[in-house]
Amino acid sequence: MKLHYDPATEAFRAELRAWLDENRPTRGAMESEPSRSSAHIPDWSRAWQQRLFDAGWLVPGWPPELGGRSATPVQQLVYFEEMARIPVQRSYNPQGLTIIVPSLRDFGSDAQQERFVVPSLRAEVSWCLGMSEPGAGSDLAGLQTRADLRGDRFVVDGQKVWTSGAAHADWCFCFVRTNPDVPKHRGISVLLIDMQSQGVDVRPMAELTDRERADFNEVFFDGVEVPRENLVGEIDRGWPMATGSLAHERGMLWTSQAARLEHLVAELCAAARERGLDADPVFRERLAALHVDAQALKFMGYRGFARFARGEASPEHSVLKLLGSEVEQRLALEATEALGTEALDVEFAGFGLGVEESPPWARRYLFSFANTIAGGTSEIQRNIIAQRVLGLPRR
Ligand SMILES: Cc1cc2nc3c(=O)[nH]c(=O)nc-3n(C[C@H](O)[C@H](O)[C@H](O)COP(=O)(O)OP(=O)(O)OC[C@H]3O[C@@H](n4cnc5c(N)ncnc54)[C@H](O)[C@@H]3O)c2cc1C
Q: Quick one: 279 and 384 in the same domain?
């Protein structure tokens, strides 16, 4: 079977490529001020995101006033394939662009949309996502951070953890418990919390992967007052936003992951050939298996995407997330083992990442655990696949 796109779609791809060649930030600009966390937006990256917005290349599926061009689903697929080829992210506040803005569009009041959607798309406002707590990760519904409504404001007390970018974020899209007397999936609400509010204490956490960049934080709330109009949707009805937010997160993730994996396998093959490692039949076999898995990921993604484009449900997302994150981890481990001490300083090209996020292979291996945990761990994905994709009974 030969898969190809029609001429109109290829013209769309060519237009995007030409625009990217002309407009993407130079390496010099990117190196002038590396992003220090997933909510730290350096000036050059704000300017880049605004250029994407103005040209309709930020979220192509959305209308022009929201940084898009009402692109078809197939054009969006091509868009993500092309974006994965350049070593710069669309946004240096990815949780804002891909989770929080779509959630505000789905659930926010007119006033909230007016206040936050376009400024966030134009990188004038940055966000962190307050879901996980010390006792609530996979079981998010167990969250304990309390918000009591007193008159026209909520008073928030509690703690979040693993909050990416919290030290630089302007706002937190925060899941809180507003009613402790009902079953745990009910009684959860979402508040927009100004990170400069009195009583918000952000404590960065040291990370294994980087000494310069502390993305993880603990966030403590001590009597933080939040105006009632910052409630998103209805009180006690926040749970659908938790599943909605994660769906936004997973959306097209596989596209860039599949494209990135293809490039990384090719890169590892080239590095192996250069060093004569490809003479080892065992290593060759491992490389071949990685190539096959990367191709499987891509074609499984196409199948799920075809269903999505026909308006059907696509249960493949959990499989793609699981396979993509685990293949990337195996790839980084193979590279690290094969290159030995060289893996400590041989950088990979970092497709789809900013230059400051293109670490040596060994560091990449350490970082690969992020993707097998964030957005639902591999074990949780296996549970979902067993029950919702394969239809196996719950134990
Ligand atoms: C890079 C990264 C960025 C993150 N950014 C954010 C952020 O910005 N905001 C935020 O709120 N959170 C964030 N997180 C936290 C992330 O959502 C949680 O780590 C994740 O949901 C898992 O929760 P946990 O760490 O509490 O582990 P737990 O839920 O305590 O799980 C511990 C272990 O038990 C396993 N386990 C748990 N339940 C089951 C089950 N039912 N069946 C089988 N095995 C199970 C898990 O798979 C895991 O191996 C981030 C995490 C990472 C790695």
A: yes
Asked if residue 117 belongs to a domain, the reply is: no
Query: Which residues are registered as beta bridge partners of 226?
Result: 154
Q: Is the CB of 32 under 6 A from ligand 1?
A: no
Task: Answer whether 120 contacts ligand 1 (Cβ < 6 A).
Answer: no
Residue range(s) defining the domain that contains residue 281: 251-389
From the CA of 255, how far away is ligand 1's center (Å)? 23
Query: Cβ(352)–Cβ(28) under 8 Å?
Result: no
pLDDT-derived band at 317, boundaries 50, 70, 90? confident
Q: Which residue has the least CA distance to atom 38 on ligand 1?
A: 138
Report the C-alpha gap between 376 and 360 in whole angstroms: 26
Domain at 279, CATH number? 1.20.140.10
Distance between CA atoms of 305 and 270, rounded to whole angstroms?
Answer: 31
**Residue 27: partners with Cβ closer than 8 Å, 6 or more residues away:** 355
Residue 381 CA from chain centroid, whole number? 16
What is the CA(376)–ligand 1 centre distance, in A?
A: 6
Model pTM above 0.90? yes
